[in-house]
Amino acid sequence: xxxxxxxxxxxxxxxxxxxxxxxxxxxxxxxxxxxxxxxxxxxxxxxxxxxxxxxxxxxxxxxxxxxxxxxxxxxxxxxxxxxxxxxxxxxxxxxxxxxxxxxxxxxxxxxxxxxxxxxxxxxxxxxxxxxxxxxxxxxxxxxxxxxxxxxxxxxxxxxxxxxxxxxxxxxxxxxxxxxxxxxxxxxxxxxxxxxxxxxxxxxxxxxxxxxxxxxxxxxxxxxxxxxxxxxxxxxxxxxxxxxxxxxxxxxxxxxxxxxxxxxxxxxxxxxxxxxxxxxxxxxxxxxxxxxxxxxxxxxxxxxxxxxxxxxxxxxxxxxxxxxxxxxxxxxxxxxxxxxxxxxxxxxxxxxxxxxxxxxxxxxxxxxxxxxxxxxxxxxxxxxxxxxxxxxxxxxxxxxxxxxxxxxxxxxxxxxxxxxxxxxxxxxxxxxxxxxxxxxxxxxxxxxxxxxxxxxxxxxxxxxxxxxxxxxxxxx
Length: 475
Description:
By secondary structure, the chain is of the alpha/beta class. The protein has 3 domains: 8-74, Arc Repressor Mutant, subunit A; 101-115 and 130-372, 3-Layer(aba) Sandwich (Aspartate Aminotransferase, domain 2), CATH 3.40.640; 376-473, Aspartate Aminotransferase, domain 1 (Alpha-Beta Complex), CATH 3.90.1150. It has 17 helices and 13 strands. The strands form 3 sheets. The protein has an 8-stranded mixed sheet with strand order 3-10-9-8-7-4-5-6, sandwiched between helices.
């Protein structure tokens, strides 16, 4: 049992906690009889008084009942507990409202990664390359008066200098013309999508999503009671003509036009025009998720969908999770003027504001040109890492894994025959220390198979080691 050198109070507590856990987990079933105190103490290696103290406490809390002349028994679960005792735990569906159950169920389908990233895991930037020293210097340079102001309540729409910096950045980087007042700061893109679902959709409204596509988007929509309708993806992105024909009552479409997730295709001009025409004709909305649009490596940059004339039907969602790091918890959404006040109020109701001190530093980081400088370095680095990964995988697999280079994004996709069970290789890869996401994980109705290879967040040495670990599994 417990360490005999522990003081008596610690031993009593340990015995008590172990008995209570055994009762709560069902190891000691209701109506089961406890051993006699002397025998129990001998087995545990403690004094009889230690066992008696723990048993008496559990009796006072209703976990145990004493029967005169017959010993001590575990109480029935449905019997009334004495004052101060814990009530039996109820299942979540017994505690939550109908809406709460919907949110919990949808959330359980999308569990974002929080463990350490293994090579090839998608979505991880080169966090070790973040300019920490520069960031800390900008923090130290913040005037005391500004620190005091930022310590209180601030504008729920976001720090005005940051909104202005983002508006200017979007014009230069993504071709989007907007006023600072149209930029709403959020806690990443996921909160932006949550606001869209809460404020623009009613329960039962249909939403078009890409298939395959990002399951975090689908989970967010389902949690708000929307009916998610899968639309196939071809080499031009979401097939809007097919989606419009199948679901004429759809109120909204969510797309990743610059670098479709997960397949990596870019939406061409004709398809973009058709998508915007659909939104204008039906007075519907388009949400542009520009999750990694800053990472383009060719001489010609693909502009954002929101940069086209769209009659205020496109809402542009951006995030700093991929450019700087998810820990900042900062993103934004570009809104039509008519929606800004409502979205600001909706943001204030759920999350009040993003940390003003972090917004202050980020505003200076962008306005003083440091973001531009950092992204130039990352684009060059990521392009090199992509080439390293392609070469390492081809060599390690003896040509079985041949990835085509891409001028966009932070990962590459390898599609295979739809009859292949892509999850099997993913499981074996994980056992070998490689995180390889199967494309089937992101499908609703689509029958597409393959794997995703993330490269941005891993050194050349790590990518080569991962390739050598994966290679024998495909030969």
